[in-house]
Model the fold of this input.
Amino acid sequence: MRHLHFTQSLEPLHGGGLASSTVTLHRQLLDLGVHSTLCSTFGEAPQRLATHALEFHRVKPDFIYYAPELRRNVKGLVSDAEVLHGHGLYVGTNYLFGREARRQRKSLVYHVHGFFEPWILQRSRWKKLLVHWLFEDGNFRQVRLWRALTNKEAGQIRACGIRAPIVVVPNGLALEEYPERPSSQASIETPWIPNLTKRGPRLLFLGRLHEKKGLDLLLRAWASLRAECRSWELVIAGPDERGYLSRLQDLARSLGIRDQLLFTGAVTAEPKKELLRSADLFVLPSRSEGFPMSLLEAMACSVPVIATSACNFPDITSAEAGWECEATMESLRQALAIARHAGEKERLQRGNNGRQLVARRYAWPSIISTLLQACSDYC
Done:
């Protein structure tokens, strides 16, 4: 079976975790000898993250993710595929591939990636209604299989009135790409801090600088613990989205914690892994997520994690891989205080538990097998 995946962008700022999980799935299919092609758009420069990945230059405005060259090539791309996988919703790539899938009567698989989270559905609601009228309603009728990352997300799909088959397949991770190594004190090259050196115990956030990530909650919680966490540093790694960085910097100054924060910009590849290994705690204070790859990556590096329930990762609690809290300042403050007081020995144990959890439940072979079987059954 020949598979074609399409998503809005592979760039860290425009694609985020959606890009990372889509590229990883595509690579894993190729490694298993499955025919797979990946298509996306790019703004400044193509990312070239995998073989058989085609990137087409998009026109402004960026948020529509529309590429004229892709429009000229989409008929042939769809003709060469048997199953089309759409990652994400409401953008130009969905318009082009969905329309052509209907014309050629090709099976569509939609990977939701958190787009049906209530917080996401309420944002720009009138624009989404317009996009549904323009093309997504037609695409939804063409979808033969929906992929949910969690049972909760499967319920959200059903709540939208969708009756097509659903397969629950989480994101996976190639654990061999994250070999066990002791934490390093070496400096790390980052875009905004050329030689990032560890000054004390490190709390790390890694992701887009965006309102939904709950960074304002994190800064307020951190400020409330200022006295007892004075020896710690908070590193915030990720690309700035629509000027949100300046808002965070202003908030940090008003809270009196600017000197405890380090903003690094987007960190990828080996520097990202080194940054994860350098952390004593990893935090994801999101208001809404599908199934965040950053949590899997942190646990693969044996780092204990703090995550909100909106991250949809209850395994953190059951596996004792970290601490879960609500997406509120007070709940996050309590989780940070508990994690800090737990002591180094307990944090190390929870970090090891996280790595074992990834090996046990989120390795790719079984995940790919489930997805391919569902495609065979319904597509």
Remarks:
- The mean pLDDT is 94.
